[in-house]
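SUBJECT: A protein chain and its fold
Encoding: whole-number codes for local backbone shapes
RECORD BEGINS BELOW THIS LINE
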Amino acid sequence: MSGRHAALPVDGDPREVLADPAPALPVMLTVVSGRPTDDELAAITAVLAAGEAAAAAEQATLLVPQPESAWTRSRRRPRGPLTVGPGHWRSFSG
């Protein structure tokens, strides 16, 4: 925190400014074996967060009803089955 209203340390130099302590964050990952570097932990955290965001976005699009398109509204019923055999082509005028 900086500026005119910044908190000053109790025991020392007024030029030093006390920062607010960071709030405790929930544990997202637990390393059970090995010794990953900070870069490796950051990479896996980014991958998992991106996957979670993609899943949430997909779920959100599934919940929103999609409007019926003009193509869907104008569709016709499927025709009936064709019967083959003598006399069935009498009304053909092609």
In short: DSSP finds two helices and no strands in the chain. Helices lie at 38-63, 70-73.
